[in-house]
Amino acid sequence: MQESQPSPAIRTGRPVISATGLYTPPDSITNEELVASFNAFVDRHNAANPEAEPLAYSSVEFIEKASGIKARHVMSKAPILDPDIMCPRLPERANDELSVMAEIGVAAARQALERAGREAKDVDAVLCAASNMQRAYPAMAIEIQQALGIEGFGFDMNVACSSATFGIQTAADYIRAGNAKSVLVVSPEITSGHLNWRDRDSHFIFGDVATAVLVEDAAIAPAQHWEILGTKLKTVFSNNIRNNFGFLNRAAPEGEGKADKLFVQEGRKVFKEVVPMVAQMILDEAARLGIDPESLRRLWLHQANAGMNRLIAHKVLGHEANEDESPTVLDTYGNTSSAGSIIAFHQHSDDLAAGDTGLICSFGAGYSAGTVFVRKMG
Q: What's the predicted TM-score (pTM) here?
């Protein structure tokens, strides 16, 4: 009788954020430029449809009061501002060329690797976590992996505006389980492609960007890194933010039904329902981790709406947060879906001292919400 062999010991890791990367498109659209384009479209539409109820103008004041956004970066500026087009025009690339989402994702990933002192051979996996993929397959993550020269594996994730935080927890779980020691979470968000630029209530919301987060085992991390103290994910189904575009209904006819193949939302309902849900989620997870929420040095919140962030921060910190405690990138980047909180973290974290704790938090369509509590080390 053959004796059974003991199972090999499972090596468990302690996940940390070693570095982040950011790609910002060079072109930006100001509110003034956007309003001029939108109002020109309104004039043309109303003149061509005298029997219909006239469309209302947009304004800089309306946009800033509704969102806090003042500008947004985009991959294709001129066509968006053309009243005859009003959407991005990105030339289709041949199958043997690097896809546009992969291109900007690779740029952000390379910056993260450089900041961590890593080479491609050091990385085990790539997760492409974004709100919309430019194709169904092959996975964008595998194309990014190939372009970077990384061995291992990759796959795509879509949890809308929470894709990046869901990706961070997934990467952290791989580290904890000993299945990887270094994972790139890449979020190329070309959100201008699924925005209805002719809808007054939402035409100002989105911008384009790409971020990358390198999640690693603390044993191999650079001296200065961010310990991941705990992560929490939550989803609750809601139709209040929706986009029906997909391969089953890609050829929407003109007119009836076409608008819902782009971003649509019930903004007031989202505000009313998401703010208390996210604030309570943060407080519950902080309690579980033994963290006093009022001791959090900084909140890197989802960059969708300044009012939502102000209320959530107040509920968490117990007072009105200042710009240092809850920094904003929404004003210059617009809503960049899952990348927003990562941009805020990337641009506003180097100044914190060792031992400071903070929170990366996302929330959006789904509803989906993710929290990542971190501590500065080194």
A: 0.93
